[in-house]
Design a protein that fits this description.
nine-stranded mixed sheet, single chain, 36% helix, four-stranded mixed sheet, UDP-N-acetylmuramoyl-L-alanine:D-glutamate ligase
Length: 303
């Protein structure tokens, strides 16, 4: 059985690398075009797998070209597809992403496709019960909530990558152990003006074991119900920030399986996310464990 399982978005990305953003209603040459697997849950699982954990994705997928690519992509990176169910005559969740060289920013346009919601079968339930960590991201919400309840009843930690403010996510927030929202999500959901106050309010509202709010280049904060602690970001020459948050969550899940405390999980995940930004592609750029540890050592941040 896998140490980490996930229920959520698995997306077919097409990335266009540009010198600068185009002007509306014009034509512009791209420097490169890359097809890649993406999505918070899917990319998080790949990150954890590349770092050394055994991982599996639970969910439906299309049988179109994009769906076939996504299954093969998981297999390439060692993520089990035994709990995936191809659905005929459907369209995959896909996105088109512009990567801008002069600002290191990205713009994403996506289509959710027509794949129906996941129904957890006996095999999937057994995998959730046996795992150390369940990763969810607010997509495929009914299945994610059901999976989270099963996980908590059986001692599996629920890690929620809270990026999108989807309708009904309160149901998932209430069954989460490791809550890792973006600053945008945390501030928007709570109405607070500071991430520290947002963390405290989220704690009171949902009572997770820990809250980690990510703030991109600023690093982020950790709140365990007692004090707010800051963790660092690691400056790098970024070429593609797309998927860096997804990679952070996958690295955090991996770090939990290593037995790291929450503070060390944050520092480790921040380093993995930084290294990913030096390469194009949400999944291709994820470093291995040894590379990450060398990176931390060079910066005086040994765990």
């Amino acid at each position: 059985m896998a140490q980490i399982v996930g229920v959520g978005a698995n997306v077919f990305d097409t990335l266009y690398r540009l010198d600068t953003y185009p002007t509306e209603d014009t034509k512009q040459k791209a420097q490169s075009v890359t097809e890649s697997g993406g999505g918070p849950c899917g990319t998080g699982l790949v990150a954890a797998s590349k770092l050394g954990a055994s991982c599996a994705y639970i969910g439906n997928c299309s049988d179109d070209r994009a769906g076939q690519f996504l299954r093969a992509d998981f297999e390439k990176y060692g993520v089990s597809t035994e709990y995936m169910h191809p659905i005929a005559d459907t369209v995959s969740f896909c996105s088109c992403i512009w990567l801008c060289d002069d600002t290191a920013a990205r713009t994403c346009v996506f289509h959710r496709g027509t794949v129906p919601p996941t129904q957890l079968d006996e095999k999937a339930v057994a995998a959730i019960k046996a795992a150390k960590v369940l990763m969810v991201d607010g997509n495929d919400l009914d299945a994610a909530v059901t999976a989270a309840k099963i996980a908590r009843e059986n001692g599996t930690l629920v890690l929620y990558d809270a990026g999108g403010r989807y309708p009904g996510v309160e149901r998932l927030l209430s069954v989460t152990d490791i809550l890792i929202p973006s600053a945008e999500f945390a501030l928007g959901h709570t109405g607070e003006e500071s991430v520290a106050n947002a963390a405290r309010k989220l704690w009171k509202m949902y009572s997770p074991k820990v809250i980690v709010i990510t703030q991109g280049k600023e690093g982020g904060i950790l709140f365990d119900g007692r004090e707010v602690l800051r963790y660092p970001a690691f400056p790098v020459d970024a070429v593609d920030t797309n998927g860096s948050g997804d990679v952070f969550h996958g690295a955090f899940a991996f770090a939990l399986t290593k037995g790291y405390d929450y503070g060390k999980c944050c520092v480790f995940s921040s380093a993995v996310s930084a290294l990913k930004c030096t390469q194009v592609g949400a999944r291709q750029g994820v470093p291995g464990f040894a590379h990450t540890m060398d990176f931390l050592k060079e910066r005086g941040a040994e765990l």
